[in-house]
Amino acid sequence: MGNGVPLLNDYKQEFFWKRFPQTVLGGPKLRLGYDAPVYVYTNQVVIFLIPWIIGGLLSLFVELDFLKDYAGSAVFAAIMFIYVLLIQLISLGIRSKQSSVIKITNQNILAEDDEIDFESCCGVETLEFIIPGKKFKVNVFFHALFSAVMCGIGLWYLLPSTSNALYNNTAVTVILFIFGWITLCIAQYSLTVAPPPEPAVFRTTDPYEITPLMRPFYVFLFEVVFLVAMFYSDFYMVDWVLHILFPILPVFWILGCLPPVDALLSWTCEQILIFLLGGTAMANDLRLFCMFLVSITVFVIVFLIAFYTNNTMAIVLTAACTGYLLSLDLPNLASQLISKCRKRPTIEHKPVGFGWSTGWKECLVYFGMFLVVGAISGVCSNSISSSNTSIYNALGYAIMGLLVLAKLLTDAQLVFVGFGLCRNPLYPSSTQSMVPYQKRKKVLHGVGYIRRIILDAVGPLVMVAYLSLFMIPSTSSINTFSLSLATVRALRWCWQSTTHSLLEISIVHLINMAVGVTTGWWYDLGMGLQLLLIGLIRDRFYQLLDQLYFIFAVLITSYSEKKQRRSSTIPMIIVSLCIFPIILAVMFTCVALSAPLLPLFTLPVFILGFPRPLRSWPGPVGSSANICPDTVYYQQVTPQLVSSLRMSIASGSLGDVNSGCHYLLRFQDRMVWLQVLEKGYGYCTFSVKGLEMQETSCHTVEAGRVDEIFETAFDNERGGACYLNSYPFHTLTALDAVPVNTYSDARNVLTGIIDSRETLANVGKCFLQSLVWVMLHHNVQKSQKRQDTQNGTAVEKHDTSQTSLVHHVNTPDTVPDTWTSRKDSGKPESVKTRPQSRAKSVKSWNSSFGSLDSWADDNDSLALDTIGDKTKKVNLLGGLETHKKEPTRKEAELPGLLTNLNDDDNMDDLFKELDFGMPAIDKSIAQKQQHSFGLPALHSNSGIKLAGSIQFSSPYSSKLSLPLKWREIPIESNRIASLLKDFPQDWFKHVLTLLDLSTSNKSSSEVAADIANDSVLSDTYRQLVMACYAVVNVFGLTGTDAVSMGASHVYRTYTGDVPWSPSLDWLTEDSELLELVLKAYRFGFKLAYDQAVLGEIEGTDELVEYLQEYENDWYIGCEKDKEWSSGVLQGKNNLFSLMYDPVDGVYNGRVLSKQPVMAYVGRLNAEVIRGYWASLSQELFYYTNDDEERYSIQAHPVLLRNLTVQSADPPLGYPIYASPPISIPTL
């Protein structure tokens, strides 16, 4: 693989050689890749050399004593200010003039995309190409001013007399003068014109135009040191060294070793905050700068107390109390306080428990500890004079004992001990057997509680007492500034990082006991500065070990891993061994600066990466990710993961967690990348990134190795409870396993089940049962919602609302008035208004009565109350409106009368409801079509008509009445007549008994029994259910039936692709009905599948149990559905999906079940991550090598290179989920 994958393809190589000269010279574009006029290059060279020409003349005048050095600098500064300003004003004027003129040019279609047609030496195209102009107009003045200051001091800096005064050597002076002016011209060009492409890139974009200041900024720093050294001789040697390094600055710029200004600022603040002020790295720049300013303020206060009062007690007390407070999660506490003051609603559902939110318990604990810290520091600092050697030794030994005990208790909880070489015999032998695992972990949790007591209470308080007594001796000769700084740092560090503070104090105490002298530079430092020095050495020593591992791992695996070998591997290894001292020098420089060691293109070629914050990325954490359907699984598991990790971090089963650490979690087919951003007293802040689940070939190789490491560590019973680690030199070290309540993913091949004729036949039967279940439950839920809405608005209605008293007509001659029944209007109760509609084609009207003769030749107008106006009457026969007074008693109403429609219902709705306005029909034909139970004629050649006024025999049937739009079925009756017998009538009645139909007068069972006897209602459901069944399982099929169509029909229908037929439009036009039908079909398939796997269902009770479980605990659908993602986020207990693999031609069932899943946790080598991320940043930003098959992204089983690239922040990496900073309490 190594030889077959290029580092840079041909196109990228050509692009690189175009921009590399710009990087070397600071911006001039001397290699374009196409033929350009000579004046294009000449103009750029002139702009580049003018500062050197003018500066050289002024330097000559100064050396000949025509001008003083400061006068020459001032003149040169003024000339450069005018020069830069003039060039930028010319560019600005040309661009403003060009914007008002539309120029038509003949574009050469054979030219390259970036090729420009130059017309003249001073043409618009030429000037725009050479001087592109500034993004912000204010920068024209600011860059000119900065150029004037830099060049003015630079003239003085590079004078031959200045160099002679430092080195007294003519050759050195000449070299420094020539190459120094080249450096100055390179830096100045970015201010005059535009910045070059920089290998050191921190941000994707440059919104504030900071990049042009990068090179001038470093030149200015050298000049500032020169000015300081002129007045303070202590800086003489620093200036002497920097004068030698000044001509070499272009080499550092070319290699990308010097950070951009914004990265330098963040890195500087972070290093000062950690090593001088005792703080921690922060999650973002805003929190970093705020904490930096607060910490500086505390230091200034302590310094002023020490300077003006020299009161030891006041110094120690202030430093100890503020150190404890600053070690807390102040940003999170402040945000919670602001949210409570503003009464903002809580969006995220945080776990419940101590520390997750700031309440009275948390405040009481923090305040109590604050008082204890104040008391101990105050008493001890007041007893300095009475302290003796015995107390000093006793506290020192106590601190060393606490350190050893904490280390032993930490290692006892890890799966590997002895630097990860040997498996811990105390750790559970296997995580597969949950009962033994939980018993053993319960014991280890007890060990963790003891560790927490030591590190959260006993250790910090003992260190506070020790430092308060002996850090500021009564006869101290340390200057006030250093003493204040060391005191603030030490008394805060024992809370901010207790383990490291125990180690540092123990080392200092041992050194002091071993040395035993009261003179010398070590004694003169004082304990505070001694701790500061040891803390810095300790941190850099850890980085040194990690970077040494990184170097040897890359060198060795580049040959030992067959797929990493390239034709140049052996020569690179030989050269690396020959120049190994240089590599070590580069490594020591990286360690000293806390900078990443950058492997060029991830090859064993190491250069210095520019210093950057520990989090490595400039943007807000979690602000972007490559969102995909699998993202929801990480969104669901993150809160559960946070709760599980809280105990692990607090008890120490993950080792010592510090800012800058990286952890990898593996469970099921998911990988979670944890990056620790902050760590303080009682809290830990980290980010969660979810890596892709659709495994590529590279991802699969590395994921397989990760699985092997975790299986060997946690589930390997071959060697008993204690054996050697099989992967001791891997970048991933297994630590612990934690149970996480998330989804287990099971995929089953359905071959032999879904294609079985018995299963296919059972799908249709189960579909009918599910459809009845779904329809009835849906309608009764809508009825209950309408009733709840009406009760909420205090609308008083009869419990049989939307019905009216009618006379039942038995025959054309007799109209008995002693028998009444209820009728359904066909209008959903929840609908208050219906859309206006134009007159539609007239429909045939078959009366709901026994005969039309009772109304024939009747001269009396049939009066209806009109909508919203009781004084109006509608003549149904004549269509006339008459006015009369509101009746004082309830009048007899016609069958189908709608008594409680709203004012905004129009007459078209009423006519549609009553099928009014139809032409006369033959009564004999109507009598033949009349149904035996008094329902209007449901069948006609044009379709099934259920939209007319329906007469129910039960006064409660309206609770389950079908909506009006579902009653118009454009299917000829003879097409589904043979299917009506398949309607599960008994199941229909049984489901009715399960519904909540209770009223104020009758229980639910009584109402259900009454409705079950209403044959009109059951017939409406029969017609609708069988019509839906026919559209899905009968119409549109090319075979004889659904069974003969096989599994393909089941899969297509399950996924919503119902076979087309002329009647399909009726179903798809109503999204609500289509949704119910698809839901019922999916229920039916799952029901048939469960019967095929688990056995036949025995009785209706078991069937009800299945369907109720589907409703409550399952989502049955497709992975691409929005409801699937919603179900995952809502924590649905189970999810089922039917899938088809076109490659293998098999059907699969996917089941997600929410249950405790064991998540394996391992720690990654932090320097490997930082080095690969630095290489990735340079390769994509500078070399623009975004080839998906490039060498640097290929799988590396030992260093997990592909996973590391994935976990980088977008756009460089591509995690599918990235969380914002998450703070968890660890007290």
TrEMBL record:
Which controlled-vocabulary keywords does the entry list? Membrane, Transmembrane, Transmembrane helix
Membrane topology value: Multi-pass membrane protein
**Lineage: superkingdom:** Eukaryota
Composition bias type Polar residues, residue spans? 801-819
- Which InterPro entries is this protein grouped with? Pecanex, Pecanex_C
Q: Where is the Pecanex C-terminal domain?
A: 1051-1220
Report any Pfam family annotated for this entry: Pecanex_C
Give me the segments passing through the membrane: 38-62, 74-94, 140-159, 171-192, 213-232, 244-265, 286-308, 364-384, 390-409, 502-521, 541-560, 572-598
Spans of biased composition, class Basic and acidic residues?
820-832
Locate the region Disordered: 783-847
Q: Where in the cell is it found?
A: Membrane
Where does it primarily localize?
membrane
The chain's coiled-coil residues are: none
Q: Which family does it belong to?
A: Belongs to the pecanex family.
**Name of the protein this chain belongs to:** Pecanex-like protein
User: Which species is listed as the source?
Assistant: Saccoglossus kowalevskii (Acorn worm)
Q: Point out the gene that encodes the protein.
A: LOC100376367
